């Protein structure tokens, strides 16, 4: 299976690298970072630069597309090359997926109309702009479109996809290889469990 | 606070990018990827290239050091420039830390003698080579040296460090901003919970 992860300026690093790491551990799977042109792309904090090794034209038919989110999605909503590539790739891909605000790019590419979808808790309601039905779940699977919640949710989504595409045993082996036995220091990773007022503080951290 | 993350060939991407993302969300914190010389460094799967933006000489006194692991640690054990930088930086840093097999580099830099430490479950016992006391915990804090278990454990460690250095509220806001409310699809992320025989399969996935 060939997974393509498009990069655009001001993506959030973990949105891309979480799923990447899961798929990179999977035997026989290949992951390629793509962009309009091969070259460096810098993240939202301006401190991490990842290399796209292929252009969109080089990889029109990946098996899986994972679109990361980040503050850069706002500008990327007007990036026709990116949106056209997502639309075209989705016609052949087994799954077209997103992490965090990457779902807005799936929406702009015309993939969410009438579908159940999720995104970061901070702007879940805005998915209706694209005709989607917002769902407050960690992973939302609607046919060949799979959307994940904010940032770290891409790890859970990638393991789920791997287990579905291959088998539970393979996904379990990857989960163990990456020692994904999370022990967050706080119970506040979703607005449902966070203390009062934390949501406003958290949103202020997103550049 | 200034966090330095050294990169070396064949590091594991999530070891570095997990903690990076946590610290990049923290207000007033800065994270810099360093290497012997600034430039691109490629990961263990050969598909992800991150840019080191500074050389070791440019950043001799970071506040926090996070050494990622990966199959490349074996060769990096002989990388004097890297080890000398870790040793020197540790003299002034508030914390010198590692993720996964990055702890072996702390050991080779002389930091683990007589200390409690952890690493990936697959080679925990080998920490005794450096005079360390292996501890099977997700995060092990021994004075100014903090070691984390395999790959994904760096996210938990970074949130713990942030909460200790600033306050719980700040770390909680970052945890919520990155929607770190993990829901792994399986309960098998440590050997203690994994089904029989999975450990061998998992280790075979590590290149």
The end-to-end distance of chain A, rounded to whole angstroms, is 34 Å
The overall pLDDT of chain A, averaged over residues, is 97
Q: What's the architecture of chain A in CATH terms?
A: 3-Layer(aba) Sandwich
Determine the structural class of chain A based on helices, strands and strand pairing: alpha/beta
Give the C-level CATH assignment of chain A.
Answer: Alpha Beta
Q: Which chain pair has the greatest contact?
A: A-B, 73 and 73 residues
Largest sheet report of chain A = 7 strands, mixed
> Which geometry of chain A do the CA atoms define?
globular
Strand content of chain A: 15-25%
Number of strands of chain A: 11
Overview of this structure, please?
Chain A has one domain: Rossmann fold (3-Layer(aba) Sandwich), CATH 3.40.50.880. With about 210 residues, chain A is α/β, with parallel strands linked by helices. The relative contact order of chain A is 0.15. Helix content of chain A is about 30%, strand content about 20%. A seven-stranded mixed β-sheet of chain A has the order 5-2-1-6-7-11-10, with helices on both faces. Chain A has a two-stranded antiparallel ribbon with strand order 3-4. In chain A, a hairpin with a 6-residue loop joins strand 3 and strand 4. Chain A has seven helices and eleven strands. In chain A, helix 1 runs parallel beside helix 5 and helix 5 runs antiparallel to helix 6. Chains A and B meet through helix 1, strand 2, strand 4, helix 5 and helix 6 of A and helix 1, strand 2, strand 4, helix 5 and helix 6 of B.
């Amino acid at each position: 299976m060939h997974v393509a992860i498009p990069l655009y300026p001001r993506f959030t690093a973990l949105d891309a690298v979480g799923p990447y790491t899961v798929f990179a551990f999977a035997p026989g799977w290949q992951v390629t970072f793509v962009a309009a042109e091969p070259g460096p792309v810098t993240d939202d904090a301006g401190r991490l630069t990842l290399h796209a090794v292929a252009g969109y034209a080089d990889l029109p038919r990946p098996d899986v597309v994972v679109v990361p989110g980040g503050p850069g999605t706002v500008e990327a909503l007007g990036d026709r090359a990116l949106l056209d590539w997502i639309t075209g790739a989705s016609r052949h891909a087994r799954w077209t997926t997103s992490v965090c605000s990457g779902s807005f790019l799936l929406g702009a590419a015309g993939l969410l109309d009438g579908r159940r979808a999720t995104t970061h808790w901070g702007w879940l309601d805005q998915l209706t702009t694209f005709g989607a039905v917002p769902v407050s779940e960690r992973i939302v699977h609607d046919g060949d479109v799979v959307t994940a919640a904010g940032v770290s949710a891409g790890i859970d989504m990638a393991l789920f996809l791997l287990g579905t595409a291959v088998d539970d045993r393979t996904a379990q082996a990857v989960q163990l290889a990456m020692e994904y036995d999370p022990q967050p220091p706080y119970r506040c990773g979703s607005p449902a469990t966070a203390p009062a007022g934390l949501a406003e503080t958290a949103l202020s951290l997103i550049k």
